[in-house]
Structure formats: structure tokens, C-alpha cells
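INPUT
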Amino acid sequence: MKPFTQHDGLVAPMDRANVDTDLMVPKQFLKSIRRSGFGPNLFDELRYLDEGEPDSDNSQRPLNPEFPLNHARYQGASILLARENFGCGSSREHAAWAMEDFGFRAVIAPSFADIFRSNALKNGILPIVLPASQVDQLFGEMYAAEGYRLVIDLEACTVLRPNGESWSFEVDPFRRDCLLKGLDDIGITLERSDAIRSFEQRHRDRFPWLFEDIVL
Amino acid sequence: MAQTLYDKLWDAHLVEQRDDGTALIYIDRHLLHEVTSPQAFEGLTLAGRSLWRRSANLAVPDHNVSTLKAERDGGLNALPDEVSRLQLQTLDDNCLAFDVAEIPLNDVRQGIVHVMGPEQGAVLPGMTVVCGDSHTSTHGAAGALAHGIGTSEVEHVMATQCLIQRKMKNFRIEVTGSLQPGVTAKDIALAVIGEIGTAGGTGFAIEFCGAAIQGLTMEGRMTLCNMAIEAGARCGLVAVDDVTLSYFRDKPLAPKGDDWGRAEEWWRTLHSDEGAAFDRTLQIDGESIDAHVTWGTSPEMVTSVNGRVPTLDEMPDETSRLGLTRALEYMGLEQGTPLSDIRPDAIFIGSCTNSRIEDLRSAAEVLKGRRIAPSIRKALVVPGSGLVKAQAEAEGLDRIFLDAGMEWREPGCSMCLAMNADRLMPGERCASTSNRNFEGRQGNGGRTHLVSPAMAAAAAVAGHFVAVDALDSEGVAV
Ligand code: SF4
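OUTPUT
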């Protein structure tokens, strides 16, 4: 995982509540057995005018001129500004992979769905929760100023606006540490193998039927 | 100290609590399917890691399988879609390479992972259960701590048998009294989501309790917990009682002999203690719930079948006005339209929410001796598993569906998410027993209305949404 310390990025809008992961990556792309290459299909149904298939040549497809991420002013955006309950629905991590592959490093919203938030964090994308009033203000400032950028500092847990004012946000300390160092969860947990083994032994003594082999 | 059901399950699986607020939680059962596992197996291989406890894992193909008998009969090699075939083949290959138990495509026990799990007793009360699928919440019906995880977590569970978690908060939803005739677990779920919203349960484990919940069968409880995720809660829970115990008694993988006795002793403790503290509570009068239909593109956009689509001036703020406008445009509906004026083109009875035997029985009861309206262009009945299918056929339900003019398919996720050929065309409107009415969920441009199986059947017959008990007075007599 790419470490996340400080990030200075262009901001793009996703101005609707309850953006679900089906919308982020439609089901036909879930047939892929890989974890990369989903960027061109992020928000596929909003982004293109035709229906995409896994083998489509995305560079040849007609773009929806109304979709902000297709607008010149948002090209190269790496921070997504969004509304309530971002990432709800399916647990598909493809949504986070697509965000990452597209180039997003952070999403700012008043709230996130639990599974998406956890998937994002595991893929080096920082979900930042700010109060709805501040998110509103960011939307306003972003629409008003082309090239609107924010500086996110994970060390300090702040979002710095162009006017020099910064807002702080909260993030799970464990997740913050993993992101700052780019650490792999599995490695961290395996360091606790002895604790897991001794728990497992007690658990087995108490509930032996849980440990039977599955004979089909 | 008085504990909630969730507290008890958490404590029984707590490997260690860390100072930063996270905890390592031990996972008893890991269910796998073809869509969210390949990248996890690949990750294990790349890192040179192995499965921590092989016997915890059970796989089944479901999301991407064909539901056509002709295509299924030829096995994997006969599947026309090459990309899907590779994905299904990859699951088989991975299970073989890692020695993971897998129920293969054409086994009678194959089915939607959340139907197959409890049916086999692969999921049991008191377990922690995870799967790379958000509807893993279904298994909370068994009094198990069950929730969906992403693929990185799938890999984490494979390699460590644990998850890194933060304890959720406790939310008790009590449904008192009894339900009116024709009102089902699906309607409770939709009514709850209508009340608290799709983010209302975020950060919570929801325990459903009260007389109306105790009165539900295991199938009904599964329908309800299945939809907990649509209320934002990663898991739903129902306390263990006699209904639970008798459901699991004869399941193939349930404990036998002395083990059953020991298990029952522990399972009998799986309820919230008197006086246990909840962070949030909600009480709903069961009698007040009527049959529900969603009209928009989020499960919270829902109302009674006798209601109507809201109007813009009823919306509290700008974001919800925008949301309503966009939803109506997508759904091709006008504000204020009575739900009973909405006419579906397609019917889908299936999915991990409503494809169990009780669901099929309740749809069949409405359809018996009737035919679907001529305006219905497709009507699929997709049983949740091969065993459900066999049971339905033994009861003659398949004949009822076929005689009514519906298709009787092979088990799988099918038109719930439309990964296979079962999908809506742009603009097509569907009465669906599944769980998500998101834009494009059932096919690009498709329009989904979530309902119970009985309501889907009634809509099929009438050609528009209608309460089941109003069917006769419509002149659509048997
Ligand atoms: S039936 Fe639908 S919701 Fe259930 S597991 Fe399959 S795709 Fe997911």
C-alpha cells in the first residue's frame, strides 16, 4: 500500500447523497479476477453514454459531457468531494480499487458507509469525514474557483483550504498509523500469531464442533 | 453486568483488545464465492502465505452462474461468457490448490452463498461468520455475528483467521405485537429502512427483537437480517430461541450427539440480558406495518403500497430535493404518483433476501390458478439453492409458477445483480424481491421496485402494484 502522509490535490465533485458501490463499479466489471485496471470504469454508467463491457476499449467510448469528472477543469483530480453515506451498498472492494486506479487519494464527505470506508483505508485512500456544513462550504468554494485544491495532512489530521484556513478531522489511530507507514494489515496481525494460537486452543476446547473438517 | 447479544458474541471471539481501540476478532466461518475471492487467493500466493485454518472455509459459485438449465447442464465449459467462465474456473482452481471445501456448480446443494450457508449448517448460532459480500448480515438470524468484508479482509481472514475490528455500537429495534395478514419480514425490513434511512444503522449492530420478530420463521429472520446492511448496519442479529434450535437440529454440518448438547447450552445464552444497555433503540408497532414498495433508487425511498411517491415540497432540504428529482427522473415517475398506478414490465422472485422455500410458497399462494398480466414481459423465479428448488418441485410450486406464465430457473444470484444474462433492459421496470434498487443494479438503465414475494406475485397478476388482499376485488379472481 502506498503510504499517505501529505497530499496536495485538485478537488472534483460527486454531488449526490448515497453514492453506492454499484454506481462506482457496475457489476459487469466484477467478472475480472484482477485487482487493477478498474480506473477507466469508475462511475461507468455516469461517465459514458453507452454501456461498457469488460472488454470494451474505453478510449473509444462516448463520454457523457454532463458528468463532472469528464470536464476539463477536473482532469487530474485526486480528491473527491461527496455527500452523505458515500460508498453504501455492496462490499465490492473493486470500488476502492477503481478509485485508487483513477488517481483518487482522498474522499471528503459528511459520512461514509462502513465497508467502503474500511476498503478505502486498505487501499491507501483516505476517507475524511467533515461536518455537512463544512462540506457544503467546500462544494461552494470548489464550484466558484476553477483549479480548486486542498492540502490534506494526515500527520496533523487537517485539511488546508486555499485561504490558509485549516480544518481538522478525526481518523482511527490504528488506520492512520498504517496509512502513514503504508503497512500491510496481514503482516501486522501475523506478528500476533502466538496470541491467535492460544485463543484458538481455548476456543477449540470450548466449542470443539466449530473445528470439524467440512466433509461434503 | 448485563450484556447485549452482540456484546456476548464479541467477547466470545475477542483474541485481544488493543490500546488504540481496535481488536483482533477470531473468525469461525469464512464463506467464499467467485467474485470477491480471486484477488485474495492471488494475494496469498504472491506473499507466500497459506490458509490459517483450512477447515474454516467453504466456497460456492453463485453470483456469476447461469440460471438456464441448458447452459448449466454442460458444466463450466459450456458457459457462453468467457470472462465469467474464467472467474468460475478460478474459484475451482483456487479451492483445489488451497484444499478448500467447495460445493460445485451443479451440486444440488449449490446456491446463493447466504442460502446455502444456513441450509448446510455451515453457519451456526454463536459463530462469527464473514464473507466477501455485504449480505453476510443474513446469518445474524441464527444468532451469529456475521458481516460482509472487502477482498483485502477476505485475504486477511484467510491468512490469520482474524479480523481487525472496532466494536460497533448496539442498536435495538423492537417490533411489537403481530403482523397483519400478508405482511412479511420483507415489509418489516423496508419499513425500518424507511424510518431510519440507509445510513441509520451505520456503525451499529442491530438486534431485532419483540413479539413480531419471535413470530418469524428462520427464513423470515434471514430476510430481515439480510436487509440490515441496507439500513447501513454491517450486521443484524436475532436472539436464539426454539425456532433457531429446531431449524439447525438436522442440518448436515450441525454438531451431533454430545456436541449438540454442549452447543445448545451455549446457544441458549445467546440473547440480550435483561437491562442490557443499548446505544440506540427504536420501537415499531407490528400491526402498523403494511406491505411496502420502494419507488426510488435507494431502499429508503419506500412507502406503503397504498401510499404515493412524495412530492418536492415535502422534502426537508436541498440535497433531498435533488435526490428526489434525480430518483424520479431515473425511475421515470412523477411526484405524487400512487404506488398502485405503477406498472412493472418484469418480475424477479429470487435473491438471498427472498428465495427460500417460504418465499416461494408465499408467491405461489398468490399465483395459484392465476396468470401473469399480458403486460409483463419477463418473470423469473430463481430458487436460492438446489435444495430449495427440489423442495419447491416436490410441493408442486414450480408448476404453479410455470402455469402462471413465469420461468423456473436454476439457483444463483441472477437478476439481483445482473452479472449474468438475467437483467433488465434500459427503462424496464421490475417488481423485485431482492434488496437493492440502486441505479443500474438489475441492468443498465433498469428500474427496480423492492417488494416481498407475495407482493411481486400480486403485481405480476394485476400488472401494477397492489396489496395482496385487494387482488380479488380487482376482478383478478382465481
Ligand atoms: S443474491 Fe444479490 S445480494 Fe444476495 S449475494 Fe447474490 S448478488 Fe448479493
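end of record. The pocket of iron/sulfur cluster is lined by residues B 63, 112, 114, 133, 135, 351-352, 413, 416-417, 434-435 (CB under 6 Å).
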